[in-house]
Design a protein that fits this description.
single chain; 597 residues; alpha/beta; six-stranded mixed sheet; 17 helices
């Protein structure tokens, strides 16, 4: 037997496993944004002692000479040949504040959950019915739920009982009067973040919120990487499922502890999430989502027993999954459409949730069409040479003038660029024409002869026939490379072409748009100037942009608090048509034009 040694701990393994698989199998927390494909360069660690395979050509693309000298490797491309000792590097888990707030419209509140207190009429020798039949005589009609049946004996030990209803269905019985305790959880499961809100159903309001990074991130930062992980690893789907269920249970524990309630007083969870997250939550294979014709196993709304999913609330609690539209237009987008009232407007409105994917919905006076474009991890700091998550040390804002001014999360020394910092930097470079229309960084000699820009010439560096723009000559490791610009170009080209494709499909001119609504975790951190400057939002729409925050969570809250909204969600999901961009005439030419700055 061979052993992996990390921080004085040791883990058994068999020869043939790659190092990343070994680390993830033991849940040691090393991220792999590309899902272990060797294409992101983020799963670096240091080999302290032991024999491994030789350095690969793919690793040379991501490792500096200094890192190679210090035995830094990409764990997904390392295969131990015996006992091995390694050390994690840059394994900083500090995370920037997750977006939990969002616009909440007015709506009629009529929760599905309710409680009713009944006086117990106990059996007598003269009227000796079964306990279940006794309840039926009181108008309490039970289903065949085993857990309800088990609860009946304790009910008859008291004079009163409380019946828990979900709509007209009895889902639980409780001894005595528990009517004051009635809670639900609204949950937004994003590819990157998870947000849980505690809802007091009686008071019909949100009382607290907790959030965390989606732990599935270590298996891939985008849905395609996670689908690949699920498909290529025997325990892949199991690991994805367990990690998100554990995350949900931990958030519930925190909410209960902070608000001094018992998890048995939570009776329903409403979940908005993209289609891949819904599949992994139910431990349903998402593999069909990742290959043509991209058909999900399900998109309809579901009401499932929490116990069956391993979610720890009341033993008879339910989980309601909001409905989605397709593989890449999920329940989170349906929630956003409902929150924005796109199905009841007489305006032309473009809705976009900017995240790892860019989902777009166009409402032409309530007629709804949608598309999805692979914004990819570049906009969230991944697939970028010095990219990182929005945590302490991440540069989040950049302004280029006589000097280059940066804002760093946590007021610490900058360690890399998060998504908003990358967009800011490239927007500023485009504004100053430090990059051309094709996205190519201009030559140093051109900047030196420009009186307005020559003070920036020292920031342009050519190394090994590759050009990059350094933010601080004193810290040359943080820079924008030509490949970084290309990654952002591809993302902005995908989103912008999605805009225009939907406009063409619905026969609307861009000047006819009344409003652009931006939702989502990432969108909130981007200024309109940067979005327009980099070309993600057309300049004609600059004055028409409105941010609505985390509409996915808001939609889940509204679903908990309103029977009507729940019906609306189902209707909206059916009414949204889906446009597959790759099949649209002239899309390739449109995409190429949208790459230009």
């Amino acid at each position: 037997m061979n052993y992996l040694y990390i921080n004085n701990d040791k883990y058994e393994f068999n020869i043939g496993m790659n190092l990343l698989d070994l680390i993830q199998k033991n849940k040691l927390g090393l991220e792999s944004p590309c899902g272990g494909n060797g294409t992101c360069g983020k799963c670096k660690l240091k080999i302290i002692n032991g024999n491994v395979n030789d350095l690969t050509d793919d690793e040379l693309k991501f490792l500096t000479d200094e890192e190679i000298k210090n035995n830094v490797r990409l764990s997904c491309l390392v295969y131990p040949k015996g006992d091995l000792s390694v050390e994690f590097i840059n394994n900083d888990n500090n995370v920037h504040k997750i977006l939990t707030e969002g616009f909440i419209p007015n709506f009629n509140k009529s929760p599905m959950l309710s409680k009713k207190v009944h006086k117990i009429n106990k059996p007598t020798l003269q009227h000796n019915l079964s306990l279940e039949d006794n309840l039926k005589q009181e108008g309490i009609i039970l289903n065949d739920d085993f857990n309800i049946l088990k609860s009946i004996p304790s009910i008859f030990e008291k004079d009163y009982c409380t019946v828990v209803y979900l709509g007209d269905e009895v889902i639980g019985l409780e001894s005595e009067d528990t009517s004051e305790k009635l809670y639900g959880i609204a949950l937004d499961i994003g590819t990157t973040t998870v947000v849980a809100s505690l809802i007091d159903i009686n008071k019909q309001c949100e009382i607290d919120c907790e959030s965390d990074i989606n732990p599935q991130k270590k298996y891939g930062l985008d849905v395609l990487s996670r689908i690949h992980y699920s498909k290529s690893n025997k325990e892949g789907l199991e690991n994805l499922n367990k990690s998100i269920i554990n995350c949900i249970n931990n958030l519930i524990i925190e909410l209960c502890k902070n608000n001094k309630i018992n998890k048995d007083e939570i009776y329903e969870i409403a979940i908005a999430a993209n289609t891949t997250m819904m599949h992994t939550l139910l431990k349903v294979s998402p593999n069909s989502i990742g290959k043509s014709p991209y058909s999900p196993v399900f998109t309809s709304g579901k009401s499932i027993k929490a116990l069956d999913l391993g979610i720890e609330i009341a033993i008879f609690g339910r989980v309601y999954l909001l409905p989605g539209v397709s593989s890449y237009i999920g329940a989170d987008i349906v929630a956003g459409v409902c929150v924005s009232d796109l199905s009841g407007t007489n305006k032309n409105i473009l809705f976009i949730d900017i995240g790892t994917n860019g989902e777009i919905v166009l409402s032409k006076r309530s007629k709804l069409s949608s598309c999805s474009c692979a914004a990819g991890p570049a906009l969230e700091g991944m697939n970028i040479s010095c990219g990182m998550r929005a945590g302490d040390g991440a540069i989040e804002n950049i302004k280029i003038g006589k000097t280059i001014e940066t804002k760093v999360i946590g007021n610490k020394e900058g360690k890399g660029l998060c998504g908003s910092g990358i967009i800011d930097a490239i927007s500023e470079m485009a504004r100053l024409k430090l990059i051309g229309k094709t996205g190519r960084i201009v030559k140093k000699s051109e900047v030196e002869t420009n009186d307005k820009l020559k003070h920036l010439s020292e920031h342009i560096v050519d190394e090994n026939k590759k050009r990059r723009f350094i933010l601080d000559p004193q810290n040359p490791n943080i820079s924008i490379t030509q490949e970084d610009i290309r990654q952002v170009q591809l993302a902005k080209g995908a989103i912008l072409s999605g805009f225009y494709a939907l406009l063409n499909t619905m026969n609307i001119d861009i000047k006819e748009l009344d409003e652009v609504i931006i939702a989502g975790q990432f969108g909130k951190h981007l200024s309109v100037d940067s979005l327009v400057g980099v070309g993600i939002i057309p300049k004609e729409l600059k004055e028409n942009v409105r941010y609505i925050g985390n509409s996915s969570k808001t939609g889940a809250i509204m679903t908990l608090l309103s029977k009507d909204i729940r019906k609306d969600m189902e209707r909206i999901a059916r009414d949204i048509s889906y446009c597959e961009l790759s099949t649209e005439d002239g899309y390739e030419r449109l995409f190429a034009n949208c790459l230009k700055f």
